[in-house]
Structures are given as C-alpha cells and as structure tokens.
Amino acid sequence: MRGPRRGRNPMNIHEYQAKALLKEFGVPVSRGLAAFTPQDAEAAAAKLGGIAFVVKAQIHAGGRGKGKFKELPAEAKGGVRVVKTAADVKANAAEMLGNTLVTIQTGPDGKQVNRLYIEEGASIDKEFYLSMLVDRATARVAFVVSTEGGMDIEEVAHATPERIVTFSVDPATGVQPLHGRKVAQALGLSGDLAKQAVALTANLYRAFTDKDMSLLEINPLVLTRDDRLVCLDAKVGFDSNALFRHPEVVQLRDESEEDFKEIEASRYDLSYIALDGTIGCMVNGAGLAMATMDIIKLYGREPANFLDVGGGATKEKVTAAFKIITADPNVEGILVNIFGGIMRCDVIAEGVIAAVRQMGLNVPLVVRLAGTNVEEGKKIIRESGLNVIPADDLDDAAQKIVAAVKKEAA
Ligand code: ADP
Ligand code: MG
User: Fold this and answer.
1) Counting C-beta atoms within 10 Å of the first and last residue's C-beta, which end of the chain has fewer, N or C?
2) β-bridge pairing 279-283 and 333-340
C-alpha cells in the first residue's frame, strides 16, 4: 500500500505539454511543434507554415523572454524569439539548444535548454493574466485575473493591486457562466469576446479539476487582432498526491528538470521538502517531523528540510532518505529522530549505516531512537565504529546537533 504523499512539491511540465493538454479540453492555444534539434525546428516551421514563428525555450521556469543565455553575448536575444522564416528558426534553434538560460525564476545557475517549442506567431492586441490555484483558506479553486499580462504578477500585485481580480468556485456547484462573466468583466470584454471568456473559464476549470492540477498560469492570455482569446503561455503544476490517478501525466515528467533529491524522494515515496536551513532532518511521522523542526529552531538553528520516511520504511527507503539529506550542500549537521512503532529501530540503524558507508559522512550526525527494538538499533550504531552522536530524547538530540554544528564551525 502506498502511503499519503502530503507535503510533496507539485510536478511541473513544459509549456508545449501543458498546451497540448489544455487543447484536449477545448482551450484555445496556438499551433506549434516541439523540437529537439535545429533540423527538427526547421522541419516544424516548414510544417506549420505562415509568416512568423516563435522559437521558445522549454525549461521549467518563466521569464524566458527576458532571460539571457550564459554562453552568448549580452546583446543576444532571450529564450522567446520571434522570427520570419524556417531558416531563421533553424539558426536560432542552433543558438539556443544546449545553452544555459538564466531567468528571474531559474536562479543564477540557469537551466540548460534541451527542448524547443516552435509556435506560429500571434498578432497580439492585448496581453492579460489568468491563473488558477487551490486556495487553502477557502478550500476552493481560485481564479486570479488581471488586465496586466505578460509581466511579473507579483510586481502588479505590489504596484497596482486594484488591477487584480480574484474569486473562487464553490465545488458544490462547480464552474458557472457567472464565473466566466467575472473573468470577462475583469478583462473589460463584452459581446462575443465575453462569450469566449465564459467558454474559456469553464474549459480551464474542467482541465484543472479533471487533471488534479495545483497551479495553472496563463501569462499572457492574449486578445489577438482578429478578436480571439488565445493562451500564449501555460505553466501547469500537478498535485503530487493525485498523480497515481494520472499515469498519462506522470509520463510527461522531465527528470532532467528536477532536482536529484526530489526524484529520489518520489521514487521511494518519501515526503520531502527542501528548506533554507542547515540541519538535515530524517524523521518518521509528520507530527514528529514538525516537532523536530520546531525544536531545532528553539535552539537557534533552521531545518534544511522536512523529510518524513513514513511508518513502515524499509532499509532501502531509509538509505535513500539519508542520501537525499547528504546531497544537500547546505546541510551542516544531520539529526535522525525516529520513534519506532511499526518502524523498527534496528531497520533504521541499518539503513543509516548503509547510507553512511556508501556516501561518507562529512558532517556531525546525531541519532535519537526510541520504541520498538531500540536496544538492537543502538547496538548496531555503537558497533558500526562510525562517529555517531547518540541522544536520549528529542530535546537532548536537538541540543546536541546544534552544539556539534557550532563546534564544527569554530
Ligand atoms: P515567458 O513568460 O517565459 O517569458 P512567454 O511564453 O510568456 O514566455 O513569452 C514571452 C512573451 O513573448 C509573451 O508575453 C508574448 O508577448 C511573446 N510571445 C510568446 N509566444 C508568442 C507567440 N506565439 N506569438 C507572438 N508572441 C509571442
Ligand atoms: Mg509567460
């Protein structure tokens, strides 16, 4: 049986995948084709035809248009390029593929571009913003709509909050024409365009709920010069807890975009969330994990992660969990805090030792074990000859790891 996957990050997909998926729900998107080589890109343009093409870098990050390639001169164009001919498409594809695009969302390291999307050029009259997310406060799907599209929505929220309209949909009634009319009103659309907005709202809602999305962002949603509403960009994240219902979505996963730690966590069904601190934590049970994070803070340090190995973890699972923690360069010390109920302390101990033997251990490690087979567990650790600091209870463990990290730094 697979346990709950609370607290896992959403699974993201590329723009071209998101658009193909939205199209299935009747959402208007531009025609386009994915490309992995300059030859692919040229062939895609030839197939699409027309007088303008857009070559779009496919990475799991926004801000591509204003992004910069690390390897190219500063004046080179960014990750979204409008060009006129299939030959231009090929030349631009050759310049982009394999290079590293840095945007406001990638961080300074940027992301390598391995895929492109070749899209027909749209003639844009206006750019709007529309997103959907699960609003935890109301436990409903919320829409966020603004006339200020194509820019960073956080900036809009800061500078001109009155230009952002939000509302949520009651799951009991589902999406209604009134929701679509709210969107139309927020965007200043009437007549046939308002009708398009109503259909778009309903179709987006259906896509969102049918596919268990946790985030859908269309920025920009454009009004074309020939009066059509078209989704020109699409960012989609799926609720990891619901992926078991969507093998077709899991297939879209691009592991080259994901963090090693997150791939491993998903492979071993661990609840893992990276945080900003320096103390790596391996804990079983969400409640104990929260308590462990709190007590680390109490003693003046911050947790580097939330990691719950769950109730019935195997040695392999514990080993994977430990590797994930040690792979984080910010980790200055590790605290293993396990209460063995169903989980046996000797299994934990064996997993930890196996991981340390494989990965080495460059930071202090405090282990606190309690519950089933605790004596066997402690004995395994003692006899391993590894430099592990044993602790008796949670308080003791937290103090010891904070002290050990301080000592290391001194
Ligand atoms: P990002 O948000 O990562 O920069 P977008 O897909 O939003 O990428 O593209 C950035 C901008 O490029 C858009 O705001 C739009 O002005 C323009 N653009 C994107 N796709 C097209 C297209 N198919 N036709 C014309 N312009 C486009
Ligand atoms: Mg965009």
Assistant:
1) N
2) parallel
Q: Would residue 129 show up in a list of annotated catalytic residues for this protein?
A: yes
Q: Shortest CA distance to 278 belongs to which of 330, 334, 337?
A: 330
Residues with Cβ within 6 A of ligand 1?
30, 54, 62-65, 80, 82, 119, 121-122, 124, 127, 150, 219-220, 232-233
Q: What is the rounded end-to-end Cα distance, in angstroms, of the chain?
A: 46
| pLDDT recorded at residue 8 | 61
pTM of the full predicted structure?
0.77
The answer to whether 202 is a known ligand-binding residue is no
Average confidence (pLDDT) over 326-341 = 90
Q: Which two tokens stand for residue 208?
A: 């969102």
Q: Do the Cβ atoms of 22 and 249 come closer than 8 Å? A: no
Q: Which CATH class is domain 259-409?
A: alpha beta
Q: Which CATH number fits domain 32-120: 3.20.20.80, 3.30.1490.20, 3.40.630.30, 3.40.50.620?
A: 3.30.1490.20
- Produce one character per residue of 271-299: b if its CB has 16 or more CB atoms within 10 Å, e if not: bbbbbebbbbbbbbbeebbeebbebbeee
**283 bridge partner residues:** 308, 337
* Residues 6 or more apart whose Cβ sits within 8 Å of residue 325: 280, 281, 282, 304, 305, 307, 331, 334
DSSP H or E segment with residue 199: helix 191-210
